[in-house]
Design goal:
mainly alpha, about 850 residues, about 65% helix, 42 helices
């Protein structure tokens, strides 16, 4: 009331009307006419200073909040109103209110704890308004706002935290000032390193929020967050561990504007290529039920292809990010955190979090921490609490740079503790899944005997166990098929594949996917010389395997060519002596070559896998012209040698020897290997259009299209949408070491998830849920009667006016039909009793 009287007296003294003005109305008038209200500004400013001095004296004397000046809420409200009033008009009076922002900040810094909650929030809002108007530098008030968050006032803490985050975010929205950001980061980093838990906690929360919103997305912030794992306060350590472990989940839920551009790139609809023939069959061929099944298969194939292409695009764009990925001293961080894990007395959940962070760091940076694996070995028990999480951490810590001897005891204990006949099916499934994941990263740990024992679980009656064993088989079909039994190898893409030795690194010598250009060029060449292939296919009984025919004829040595040709020729003489006399020498050579072809192809099929022959065929198709020339040359040499051969051997020998058959088989095998090597050297050469080693943008676009077609073909084959005779490589592709390091192992995927059998009530509920959109069942006649589209043609025919002669003829025909049926009914009964 006193301030209102003073304001009224000042207005009267200045010659204005005696109407009573409130502070908001005076504020609007002062913004419109700043120079005309200088006297009122000085009066309000002096009243604010006097009230401010009273509150500062109370804070200095340490008065209780119950007594003193602050006990009167009216006085506190007047001070807050004047502070907000001066903050609003401060930009219009920069000279008169030059000291006001500093005075307000100093008042909050010194007396914030003794002020009432309402006054404290009001003064803080006034200071935030001054910071937003650029009258106070953010670097001078950041420490104050961080301290205000530790006062225990929930509303004030929320207000100060949102102001700090939004101010720094707005400051970095258009361009980033590195000097200002570095000074602000130094303030927060110093608060984070303090032993006082409240200040360190608020600074850590602020850093995490700015890092999550990708405002401070640099290495300094990431290292500061990781360093919080070593804070003396366990609550801050747990918060840091949780942030590092849940960062991927936080990234998925992030709604920040800074990450929108990356999300748009990574979530574009992938380029899907589907065979037109498969689409046509799914929509136009077959019955309604078969078309429905084909459409469902097509949809599943499209979904799997989209998922694979999205994952491959994410891997190529390398959008993966984690604060652990930018550690300056990853080895020191892992060793320090592991030593704290060994000596800490925290509860089990905290130890598991520390364990997972150490394993994540080791796998991400390919570190060597040899003491970590014996430490894990103590906890590898089926009855251990959260054992799948622990096993996932063990898998994550394995990579190809770790010596296999260091991980072998842990690997053996996992097998011995989980995979045995007396173990539960769930434990066996978990054990085999963990073995598969470890072998995916370190295949040198597996030996042939152990693999055979684990593969035998594919015959288990438990679905989870058999599925885990089959997944192990599919992995080693790609890694090392020779370790599997022949019946388990299937058709691997590379039968001679071997895991890399320890320390071996594959160096890229060409652009990835450039071989697809060569294969596409070869396919075009094959189309142009398709007539030659058709001619060659007629000579073989198995369907035209040109590679096998030529390999047998060209693989015979000069020393054994004479005996081989003669003996095969003698066998032909036993079959038909008369035709032998009339045939020419060239026809004899061709018949012997065909006979040798049949024998050698049958023996090779017995000794080698069928897939090897098919691969040989595919590899040799690219060089048909050259190989035909070689075959003709070999046949000419054989015919010349046969002409010079003696006729005595021809008349004396009557039976083929088994040793000669073995020689023919060896010749076929050596020729197959020679042709495979020739095809590999041809494929390793750069394509003709890139002989200079430079690929154009069109070549890269073509490589991308060919990759998409290859993935589409593999997905369609996997879902059974292509023909059975179509040869495609395995859809499973072993990821690289870098991709495995970025991939986080999910403990839930190691567990056995077997679909339980539904009860009768649950099955009925599913059936009823599927019938919600259906109409009620009715007879077809009733449905026809209720239709509204008019009568059918049959009904119209009944209503037609027919001539009497036509009606009589119709009645006569019906009578004759009835008589005929009645006459046959008793005489020609063909039921069960008629045959007794």
């Amino acid at each position: 009331m006193a301030s209102a009287h003073l304001l009224l007296e000042s207005l009267t003294a200045s010659g204005r009307s005696c109407e009573k003005l409130s502070l908001p109305s005076l504020q609007s008038k002062m913004k419109c006419d700043p120079e005309g209200y200088t006297t009122e500004l000085g009066l309000v400013h002096s009243q604010f200073n006097s009230s401010l001095e009273l509150f500062e004296q109370q804070a200095a004397l340490s008065f209780a909040s119950i007594s003193g000046v602050a006990a009167d809420p009216a006085v506190a409200k007047d001070l807050g109103d004047r502070a907000m009033f001066l903050a609003h008009v401060a930009p219009f009076y920069p000279k008169q209110l030059a000291e006001f922002p500093g005075r307000l900040a100093e008042f909050l810094r010194s007396s914030a704890r003794s002020l009432p909650s309402g006054l404290r929030c009001t003064v803080t809002q006034a200071l935030i308004l001054l910071v937003n108007r650029k009258m106070v530098d953010m670097r001078d008030t950041l420490a104050l706002f961080m301290e205000l968050q530790t006062l225990g006032d929930r509303a004030l803490r929320k207000l100060a935290f949102s102001h700090v985050v939004h101010s720094i975010r707005k400051m970095n929205q258009k361009h980033k000032n590195e000097a200002t950001n570095r000074s602000l980061q130094n303030v927060l980093f110093s608060l984070l390193q303090q032993e006082e838990e409240t200040k360190a906690k608020q600074s850590f929360i602020t850093l995490c929020e700015l890092h999550r919103r990708k405002v401070w997305f640099d290495d300094r912030t990431a290292n500061a967050i990781c360093t919080a794992c070593f804070h003396p306060a366990s609550r801050i350590m747990i918060a840091a561990l949780s942030f590092l472990l849940d960062y991927e989940k936080i990234e998925d839920d992030s709604d920040s504007d800074a990450s929108s551009s990356d999300d748009e790139v990574s979530h574009q609809s992938p380029h899907v290529v589907i065979n037109k023939e498969a689409v046509y069959k799914a929509h136009h061929k077959g019955t309604a039920a078969s078309k429905k099944k084909k459409k469902a298969k097509l949809q599943r194939a499209m979904r799997s292809m989209k998922r694979q292409q999205r994952l491959s695009s994410e891997n190529r764009s390398s959008n993966y990010y984690s604060p652990l990925n930018h550690l300056k001293d990853a080895q020191g961080f892992a060793e320090k955190l592991f030593s704290r894990l060994q000596t800490c007395n925290e509860r089990f959940e905290v130890k598991m979090m520390m364990l997972k962070v150490v394993a994540r760091t080791v796998g991400l940076h390919h570190l060597i921490l040899l003491n970590f694996y014996p430490f894990l070995q103590k906890y590898v028990q089926p009855h251990q609490r959260d054992v799948t999480t622990l096993l996932a951490a063990a898998v994550q810590a394995c990579h190809d740079m770790v010596p296999p001897d260091a991980v072998e005891p842990l690997f053996k204990q996992i097998v011995n503790q989980f995979v045995h006949d007396r173990s539960r099916p769930e434990a066996i499934a978990v054990g085999i899944n963990v073995v598969r994941e470890i072998c995916l990263r370190m295949p040198l740990l597996m030996n042939e005997d152990l693999l055979q024992d684990l593969v035998l679980y594919k015959k288990s009656h438990e679905k989870a166990v058999s599925a885990a064993a089959r997944s192990l088989i599919s992995l080693f079909r790609e890694l090392c098929p020779s370790m599997l039994v022949k019946k388990d190898r299937g058709r691997p893409s590379d039968p001679t594949a071997r895991p890399k030795a320890y320390g071996e690194v594959s160096v890229a010598s060409a652009v990835p996917g450039v071989e697809l250009l060569q294969n596409s060029d070869d396919d075009e060449d094959d189309d142009s010389i398709g007539s030659d292939e058709d001619i060659g296919s007629e000579d073989s009984d198995d369907g035209g395997s040109i590679g096998i025919d030529i390999s047998v004829s060209s693989g015979s040595d000069d020393e054994n060519a004479m005996s081989d040709d003669e003996e095969t020729h003698f066998d032909d003489n036993e079959c038909d002596d008369e035709s032998l006399e009339g045939d020419s020498v060239h026809e004899e050579d061709s018949s012997s070559a065909e006979d040798l072809d049949e024998v050698s192809s049958d023996e090779v099929d017995e000794d080698e896998d069928e897939h090897d022959d098919e691969n040989a065929k595919a590899d040799c198709d690219n060089d048909n012209e050259e190989v035909h020339d070689e075959a003709n040359a070999v046949l000419e040499t054989n015919s010349s040698e046969k002409k010079t051969g003696s006729g005595a051997k021809f008349s004396e020998t009557r039976k083929r020897k088994f040793s000669d058959i073995d020689g023919q088989i060896n010749a076929a095998e050596t020729s197959l290997r020679a042709l495979k090597k020739l095809a590999e050297t041809k494929l390793s050469q750069p394509p003709s259009d890139s002989a200079d080693g430079i690929l154009s943008n069109e070549d890269f676009q073509r490589i991308k299209q060919l990759k998409a077609k290859k993935e589409a073909k593999a997905a369609l084959t996997k879902h059974g949408l292509l023909g059975k005779n179509v040869e495609t490589k395995s859809a499973f592709k072993v990821p690289s070491s870098d991709q495995l390091s970025f991939k986080r192992v999910d403990p839930a995927k190691l567990e056995a998830h077997v679909k339980q059998k539904l009860s009768k009530e649950e099955r009925l509920a599913l059936v009823k849920a599927g019938r919600e959109d259906r109409i009620k069942y009715q007879a077809r006649a009733a449905i026809k009667q209720k239709k509204t589209g008019g009568s059918s043609n049959k009904q119209k025919e009944h209503r037609k006016l027919m001539p009497k002669a036509a009606k009589r003829a119709k009645v006569q025909r019906s009578r004759e039909d009835k008589k005929r049926k009645h006459g046959r009914s008793g005489k020609q009964f063909r039921g069960k009793k008629a045959w007794k």
